[in-house]
Amino acid sequence: MGAQQVRDVLGVRDGFAELYGAGPEGVWSAPGRVNLIGEHTDYNDGFVMPFALPHTTVAAVSRRTDGRLRLHSADVEGPAVELGLEGLAPGTDRTWTAYPAGVVWALREAGHPVTGADIHLASAVPAGAGLSSSAALEVVIALALDDLYELGLQRWQLARLCQRAENVYVGAPTGIMDQTASACCAEGHALFLDTRDLSQRQIPFDLAAEGLRLLVVDTRVQHAHSGGEYGRRRAGCEKGAALLGLDALRDVPQGGLDAALAELGDEEEVRRLVRHVVTEDARVERVVALLESGDTRAIGPVLTEGHASLRDDFRVSCPELDLVVDTALTAGALGARMTGGGFGGSAIVLAEAADTDTITKAVEAAFAAAGLTAPRVFEAVPGAGARRIG
Ligand code: GLA
Question: Which CATH number is associated with domain 204-379?
Answer without folding.
Answer: 3.30.70.890
